[in-house]
Amino acid sequence: MAKLRMAVVGAGAIGRAHAEVIAAGNVAELAAIVDPTDAGRAVAVHFGVPWFVDQDALLAAGTVDAAIVATPNQTHLPVSLAFIERGIPVLVEKPIASTLAEARALTAAAEKAGVAVLVGHHRRHNPIARRARDLVRSGTLGRLTSVSVLYTFLKPDSYFELDWRRRAGGGPVLINLIHEIDLIRFICGEIESVQAVTSNAVRGFEVEDSAAVILRLAGGALVTVNVSDTAVAPWSWDMATRESQHYPQLPVPVNSHYLSGTAASLTLPQLDLWRYPGKAGWHEPIARETVPVERADPYAEQIRHLCAVARGEEQPVISAADGTRTLEATLAVHEAARIGAPVALSYGQ
Ligand SMILES: NC(=O)c1ccc[n+]([C@@H]2O[C@H](COP(=O)([O-])OP(=O)(O)OC[C@H]3O[C@@H](n4cnc5c(N)ncnc54)[C@H](O)[C@@H]3O)[C@@H](O)[C@H]2O)c1
């Protein structure tokens, strides 16, 4: 089967990572790099592919089969629209857009044109997340009652040299927590309401450095998420799974997610399943088994999926409409913290 010709738009941190994955794999061909900077041109030279200053120049020069939009959030809408208008499927990085209005405009344009748009919530492509979803959805845990998530890690001081990262919107809620919100929706089901407290007590920047969040899910399960980017800790999905090779090997396996139900509990990412082999009750012996899973790189699987979607062989694992719901739930964290009360989610209904 011929390789799909893929353009990467935005050759920064994640754009370069996507280019590496495409170049290393055998499902797609890196066809172009689009990024107006000298650094962007250097990335094109590195991969030996044509370089364009913007998506219009790329589209004028000839067509590509699919595009990855890995530019800053506020450009996701206009850049993606250029491809949608040409009927070219897009993988747009998370968050789908910087505002709900933009996210809805992108979703409407994609639906009207009948063009597939995927959102880069790459964790959905991790076999661990898929196994957990299967276990929860098949009822192995019984009725889900409680989920605890720790997302604590340390961003070094140098990270904050860029001004926007010290400002509202540049913090762990929109950059990191959004991954948890999407993972919870994917594994456990829809979020109905959000409560939150945020804090900037450690760094004192305008942006939060920590947040404590309570989610109520459809079906009644309660979720707590503690996120902090100023804590010395290994308890994060990113460090525990090493989805990205930027994270070092931990000396021992750790978990970041604890899912409890009326029949069993599950930890992630180690997939330890705890349940009673005999009589159930807190004074009875409880047993642990580890659910087997074949580990795989979610970023590579995401590219394979994009190719399959572009060929019409698969439906998006996360569509524009779905990515908009994740954005709505994440933005509600800031709103709930601001008003000091729960925010009910309507998802545009
Ligand atoms: N899924 C993930 O794991 C993940 C990880 C990091 C970032 N992201 C997301 O990816 C996006 C990019 O983040 P980043 O950390 O790589 O940012 P970055 O600042 O490192 O890179 C952005 C690049 O886009 C280029 N650019 C800006 N405007 C452009 C335009 N109009 N056309 C073409 N290129 C343009 C910049 O020159 C820069 O090279 C963000 O939406 C971010 O939230 C996702």
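The domain at 4-119 is CATH 3.40.50.720 (Rossmann fold).
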